[in-house]
């Protein structure tokens, strides 16, 4: 049997058993270097995933503190804790932070960490691109928050309608920070999405066919395809806004043939699919997590997987439901309204599948289970209010009232924050080798759940009573004071629950009970690795025959068993296996890139470039641009080690 | 006793071989997202034009005397880089050098002519919504041409350094693919901004 020898175009990979010597060899090959330089250069998907998770949790806290300030201001009528301008900046920054800097990146973090482990691969398809997407995300967050700190945060809501975003109504750098920051962030999302897509198509263990994928993978994959196609819409819209403001273009200016509504179309062509992109992977967490604690496979796997994809396909066509109140023709409203209500169908499938899984299973009530199960309740509430606003006449009544604030928080907190916290309880042991405390966990759950409902259910009411959203105060005569006080109290209780969750993390990092490889007795491949997993993930390339590789003996679905102990060694270099798209047949041996500082340098260059553009500072723009271009040339220079070229002979 | 599944692969390609490899999927993803970007630009044009009043377009009859030959030149350059790519596949380094060099030249001529085309316009970027869209869309395209020219120059250099062989040439294939994209997307831009006014759009 020939071994893989670098330079030869074909080789038969050596097959062998998982041994300590093999592991030692792989460790030396895959380990990141120590020290600051090593840290900045790491391309390990687990390292990057953790950075994503930590950064987005920090931003969740920041966005949460902003929200609490808002709720303090609204706790009673006619308060003057915040000026109207400050209120504008705070609610816009809160929305921007939560939607763009927390809700999506947190899911990228989990998926980055988990995908290769779940798929039985050694890394993502493009490890350097992976590092780049994290560093640009960080750069965009720094950029946007620099604006906030110098008093130039976004002040026109997260969806930033024109004409208020235009220079004549909105002097100051607020909108320029937001516009350029969003273009920068768009780059991160796009390269990340491309990486997920190619990873799904190529980086699965043999036999990990398309019907064996965990639902989380389906969710992130669907979200990534959507992002690849719709993120350019919002980047373009923001870029055009910046040009309108700084270079006198007329995209959105009606007096010169422009269209303010163009902003709304571009924004919601992106925004609606994006809303799914920040819930579908989280729904996947529930679909994969619940069965572990119900001790049985998910009911209706195929329906749920296809429903995920169907939701997104329908989701491309319904952006206009955010524009029902803009005076579009009636027929088009009816069409978009019908499509929006139709979307409820695939979501309902998922809900029934979860309920059936609990019903037919033997639930073990852990903290993670509580978060996943309660998410179903919140999802139903948020879904019903969503279907209500999907209907045109109701939307005309409710648009821009607090009812919408209630709806969007039920959706976003219910379908993003609750599953994400549940997922942390579920996978923290895998990531750290320690369990989170269950007692504190239950406390944090009940505080979050009760606080959330106390705070956000009454928002529906004040909305129906006519309280508009995005107002910094309300007069006492309206009689909204007492309910608003309850809302604010509930918000603070919820925040305390979130705080308990973070306390649990910090405490358990140091003194949590140690756990083995598979503390919850989970079925999927990540539980076969040690906790935390080694840098190479799997010592030998596993061969998979079912959806539940670790539950096969119990489920007895077929005679054959997945093989985790023997397989391709791929130990002569930083090698990984590429497989075919549908059936995951071995296709190619890949030389994986070594750690490199280039993604970091490229991100720093981009940050300089964007500050240069913002300040219209030519030297800064040139330095950033040229440094970025050089980084790219360095990146793509064909490498012998990656077999991108022949040894030079000229 | 249940049986363990086995994977006993035959010989597998190592690294990118020929035009195959994960890098190619990456390039296709880039093209998909960039294609979408141009789609939104053109959508903006049709949307603003479609909902604008009469005389919305910047010019009722755009001058085609430079733009049409320039378009043909760009499309021909796609053929030339295709030939150069084929030469790389056949291991014919001379033709590959000639081809990528010629494509570089043709692309540069296109960029220069487009520059004069801009200069010759009677309106500036802020004249109207249509004018803004014209300059920004062709400007976006020009940015892609410039990136493409840098890529072509690098391909020329790397071919000259003898980096590519019939087996190891994914970088060349990807660069050529990018250039095809730059050319293909221009057809849509050209049709939209230079031809549809003749069909009456926005007039
Ligand atoms: C402690 C938790 C939270 C509280 C108390 C809270 C409270 C608020 C308040 C008071 C507003 C402004 C309403 C208005 O005046 O119109 C708001 C807006 C918003 N919140 Fe939250 N929120 C919380 C968490 C979240 C989370 C986790 C997300 C997303 C994942 C989120 C997303 C949004 C969005 C998108 C807006 C709309 C901003 C806009 O109008 O442009 N919030 N929230
Ligand atoms: Cu929507």
Automatic annotation (TrEMBL), chain A:
<feature type="transmembrane region" description="Helical">
    <location>
        <begin position="298"/>
        <end position="321"/>
    </location>
</feature>
<feature type="transmembrane region" description="Helical">
    <location>
        <begin position="440"/>
        <end position="465"/>
    </location>
</feature>
<comment type="similarity">
    <text>Belongs to the heme-copper respiratory oxidase family.</text>
</comment>
<feature type="transmembrane region" description="Helical">
    <location>
        <begin position="49"/>
        <end position="69"/>
    </location>
</feature>
<keyword id="KW-0812">Transmembrane</keyword>
<dbReference type="GO" id="GO:0016491">
    <property type="term" value="F:oxidoreductase activity"/>
</dbReference>
<keyword id="KW-0472">Membrane</keyword>
<keyword id="KW-0186">Copper</keyword>
<dbReference type="Pfam" id="PF00115">
    <property type="entry name" value="COX1"/>
</dbReference>
<dbReference type="InterPro" id="IPR023616">
    <property type="entry name" value="Cyt_c_oxase-like_su1_dom"/>
</dbReference>
<feature type="transmembrane region" description="Helical">
    <location>
        <begin position="368"/>
        <end position="388"/>
    </location>
</feature>
<dbReference type="GO" id="GO:0006119">
    <property type="term" value="P:oxidative phosphorylation"/>
</dbReference>
<comment type="function">
    <text>Cytochrome c oxidase is the component of the respiratory chain that catalyzes the reduction of oxygen to water. Subunits 1-3 form the functional core of the enzyme complex. CO I is the catalytic subunit of the enzyme. Electrons originating in cytochrome c are transferred via the copper A center of subunit 2 and heme A of subunit 1 to the bimetallic center formed by heme A3 and copper B.</text>
</comment>
<dbReference type="GO" id="GO:0046872">
    <property type="term" value="F:metal ion binding"/>
</dbReference>
<dbReference type="GO" id="GO:0020037">
    <property type="term" value="F:heme binding"/>
</dbReference>
<dbReference type="GO" id="GO:0015990">
    <property type="term" value="P:electron transport coupled proton transport"/>
</dbReference>
<keyword id="KW-1133">Transmembrane helix</keyword>
<feature type="transmembrane region" description="Helical">
    <location>
        <begin position="213"/>
        <end position="242"/>
    </location>
</feature>
<keyword id="KW-0560">Oxidoreductase</keyword>
<feature type="transmembrane region" description="Helical">
    <location>
        <begin position="597"/>
        <end position="614"/>
    </location>
</feature>
<feature type="domain" description="Cytochrome oxidase subunit I profile">
    <location>
        <begin position="33"/>
        <end position="545"/>
    </location>
</feature>
<feature type="transmembrane region" description="Helical">
    <location>
        <begin position="333"/>
        <end position="356"/>
    </location>
</feature>
From TrEMBL, chain B:
<dbReference type="InterPro" id="IPR013833">
    <property type="entry name" value="Cyt_c_oxidase_su3_a-hlx"/>
</dbReference>
<feature type="domain" description="Heme-copper oxidase subunit III family profile">
    <location>
        <begin position="24"/>
        <end position="198"/>
    </location>
</feature>
<keyword id="KW-0472">Membrane</keyword>
<dbReference type="GO" id="GO:0019646">
    <property type="term" value="P:aerobic electron transport chain"/>
</dbReference>
<feature type="transmembrane region" description="Helical">
    <location>
        <begin position="67"/>
        <end position="84"/>
    </location>
</feature>
<dbReference type="InterPro" id="IPR000298">
    <property type="entry name" value="Cyt_c_oxidase-like_su3"/>
</dbReference>
<dbReference type="GO" id="GO:0005886">
    <property type="term" value="C:plasma membrane"/>
</dbReference>
<comment type="similarity">
    <text>Belongs to the cytochrome c oxidase subunit 3 family.</text>
</comment>
<dbReference type="Pfam" id="PF00510">
    <property type="entry name" value="COX3"/>
</dbReference>
<dbReference type="InterPro" id="IPR035973">
    <property type="entry name" value="Cyt_c_oxidase_su3-like_sf"/>
</dbReference>
<keyword id="KW-1003">Cell membrane</keyword>
<feature type="transmembrane region" description="Helical">
    <location>
        <begin position="27"/>
        <end position="47"/>
    </location>
</feature>
<protein>
    <submittedName>
        <fullName>Heme-copper oxidase subunit III</fullName>
    </submittedName>
</protein>
<keyword id="KW-1133">Transmembrane helix</keyword>
<feature type="transmembrane region" description="Helical">
    <location>
        <begin position="176"/>
        <end position="195"/>
    </location>
</feature>
<dbReference type="InterPro" id="IPR024791">
    <property type="entry name" value="Cyt_c/ubiquinol_Oxase_su3"/>
</dbReference>
<dbReference type="GO" id="GO:0004129">
    <property type="term" value="F:cytochrome-c oxidase activity"/>
</dbReference>
<feature type="transmembrane region" description="Helical">
    <location>
        <begin position="142"/>
        <end position="164"/>
    </location>
</feature>
<feature type="transmembrane region" description="Helical">
    <location>
        <begin position="96"/>
        <end position="116"/>
    </location>
</feature>
<keyword id="KW-0812">Transmembrane</keyword>
């Amino acid at each position: 049997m020939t071994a893989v020898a670098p330079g030869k175009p074909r080789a038969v990979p050596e097959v062998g058993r998982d041994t300590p010597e093999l592991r030692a060899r792989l460790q030396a090959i895959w380990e990141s270097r120590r020290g600051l330089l090593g840290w900045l250069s790491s391309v390990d998907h687990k390292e990057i995933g953790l950075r994503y998770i930590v950064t987005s949790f920090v931003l969740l806290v920041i966005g949460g503190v902003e929200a609490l300030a808002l709720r303090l201001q609204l706790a009673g009528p006619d308060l003057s804790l915040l000026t109207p301008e400050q209120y504008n900046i705070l609610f816009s920054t809160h929305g921007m932070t939560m939607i763009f800097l927390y809700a999506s990146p947190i899911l990228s973090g989990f998926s980055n960490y988990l995908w290769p482990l779940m798929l039985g691969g050694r890394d993502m398809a493009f490890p350097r691109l992976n590092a780049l997407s994290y560093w640009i995300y960080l750069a965009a967050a720094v950029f946007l928050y620099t604006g906030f700190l110098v008093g130039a945060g976004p002040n026109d809501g997260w969806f930033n309608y024109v004409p208020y975003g235009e220079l004549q109504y909105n002097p100051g750098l607020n909108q320029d920070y937001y516009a350029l920051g969003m273009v920068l962030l768009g780059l991160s999302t796009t390269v990340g999405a491309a990486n997920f897509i190619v990873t799904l198509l190529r980086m699965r263990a043999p036999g990990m066919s398309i019907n064996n994928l965990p639902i989380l993978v389906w969710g992130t994959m669907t979200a990534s395809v959507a992002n690849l196609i719709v993120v350019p819409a919002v980047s373009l819209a923001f870029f055009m806004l910046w040009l309108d403001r700084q270079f006198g273009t007329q995209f959105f200016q009606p007096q010169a043939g422009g269209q303010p509504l163009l902003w709304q179309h571009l924004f919601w062509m992106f925004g609606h699919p994006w809303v799914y992109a920040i819930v579908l992977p989280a729904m996947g967490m529930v679909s994969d997590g619940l069965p572990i604690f119900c001790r049985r496979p998910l009911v209706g796997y195929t329906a749920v997987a296809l429903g995920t994809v169907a939701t997104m396909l329908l989701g491309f066509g319904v952006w206009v439901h955010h524009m029902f109140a803009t005076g579009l023709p009636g027929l088009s409203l009816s069409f978009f309204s019908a499509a929006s209500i139709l979307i409820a169908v695939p979501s309902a499938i998922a809900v029934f599948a979860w309920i059936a899984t609990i019903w037919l299973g033997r639930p073990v009530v852990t903290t993670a289970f509580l978060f996943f199960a309660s998410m179903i309740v919140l999802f139903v509430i948020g879904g019903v209010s969503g279907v209500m606003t999907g209907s045109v006449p109701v939307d005309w009544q409710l648009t821009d009232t607090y009812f919408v604030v209630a709806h969007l928080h039920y959706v976003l907190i219910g379908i993003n924050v609750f599953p994400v916290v549940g997922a942390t309880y579920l996978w923290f042991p895998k990531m750290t080798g320690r369990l989170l405390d269950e007692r504190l966990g239950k406390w944090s759950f009940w505080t979050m759940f009760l606080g959330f409902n106390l705070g956000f259910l009454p928002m529906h009411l004040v909305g129906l009573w006519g309280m508009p959203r995005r107002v910094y105060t309300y007069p006492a005569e309206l009689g909204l004071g007492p309910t608003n006080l309850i809302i604010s109290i509930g918000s603070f209780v919820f925040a305390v629950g979130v705080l308990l969750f973070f306390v649990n993390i910090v405490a358990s990092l140091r003194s949590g009970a140690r756990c083995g490889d598979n503390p919850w007795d989970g079925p999927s491949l990540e539980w076969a690795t040690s906790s935390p997993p080694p840098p190479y993930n799997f010592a030998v390339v596993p061969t998979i025959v079912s959806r539940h590789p670790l539950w096969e003996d119990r489920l007895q679905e077929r005679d054959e068993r997945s093989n985790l102990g023997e397989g391709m060694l791929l130990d002569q270099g930083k090698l990984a296996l590429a497989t075919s798209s549908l059936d995951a047949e071995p296709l190619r041996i890949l030389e994986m890139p070594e750690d490199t500082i280039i993604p970091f340098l490229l991100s720093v260059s981009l940050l300089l470039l964007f500050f240069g553009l913002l300040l219209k500072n030519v030297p800064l723009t040139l330095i950033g641009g040229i440094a970025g271009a050089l980084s790219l040339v360095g990146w793509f220079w064909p490498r012998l080690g990656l077999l991108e070229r022949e040894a030079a002979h000229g | 006793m249940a049986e363990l599944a086995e994977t006993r692969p035959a010989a597998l390609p190592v690294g990118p071989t020929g035009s195959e490899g994960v890098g190619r999927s990456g390039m296709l993803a880039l093209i998909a997202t960039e294609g979408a970007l141009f789609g939104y630009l053109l959508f903006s044009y049709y949307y603003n034009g479609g909902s604008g009043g009469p005389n919305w377009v910047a010019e009722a009859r755009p001058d085609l005397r430079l733009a049409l030959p320039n378009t043909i030149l760009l499309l021909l350059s796609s053929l030339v880089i295709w030939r150069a790519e084929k030469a790389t596949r056949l291991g014919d380094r001379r033709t590959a050098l000639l081809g990528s060099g010629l494509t570089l030249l043709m692309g540069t001529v296109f960029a220069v002519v487009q520059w004069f085309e801009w200069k010759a316009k009677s309106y500036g970027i802020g004249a109207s919504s249509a004018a803004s869209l014209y300059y920004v869309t062709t400007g976006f395209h020009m940015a892609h041409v410039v990136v493409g020219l840098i890529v072509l120059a690098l391909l020329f250099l790397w071919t000259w350094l003898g980096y590519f062989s019939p087996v190891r040439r994914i970088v060349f294939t990807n660069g050529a693919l990018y250039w095809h994209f730059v050319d293909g997307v221009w057809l849509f831009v050209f049709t939209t901004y230079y031809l549809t006014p003749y069909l009456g759009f926005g007039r």
